[in-house]
Amino acid sequence: MDKFPQCLKCSKGVLIPLSDYGRDGSEIRFKAWVCSNPECGHNIRIDNGEVSIGKVIKQSEK
Ligand SMILES: [Zn+2]
Fold first, then answer.
1. Taking burial as the number of CB atoms within 10 A of a residue's CB, which of 33, 37, 46, 58 is the most buried?
2. CA dist., res. 14 & res. 8, Å (int)
3. Banded pLDDT at 13 (limits 50, 70, 90)
4. How much distance in Å is there from the Cα of 26 to the middle of ligand 1?
5. Angle CA(31)–CA(26)–CA(24) in degrees, nearest 5?
6. pTM (two decimals)
7. What's the CA-to-centroid distance between 54 and ligand 1, angstroms?
């Protein structure tokens, strides 16, 4: 995969796939997609087959 899909919200960033690991240690590929533009923050999550769009991802404040 050499090209990521462009973010439809800001049209500046690209959507980067994030992987996670399940309870049994199996890899969950592309569990979430996050916009690379920090000012946008658009994201898509997939939880147990349900897709949720645009939920705020918590950022650690420094
Ligand atoms: Zn975006």
1. 33
2. 9
3. very high
4. 29
5. 115
6. 0.67
7. 10
45/51 Cα distance (integer angstroms):
6
Ligand 1 centre distance from Cα of residue 14 (Å): 7
d(CA 50, ligand 1 centre) in Å:
21
| Count of Cβ atoms closer than 10 Å to residue 15 Cβ | 21
User: Measured between alpha carbons, how far is 18 from 31 in angstroms, rounded to an integer?
Assistant: 6
**From ligand 1's centre to the CA of 43, what distance in Å?**
8
Across residues 9-21, what is the average pLDDT?
Answer: 91
User: Per residue in 24-56, pLDDT tens?
Assistant: 998 878 788 999 999 998 998 887 788 888 766
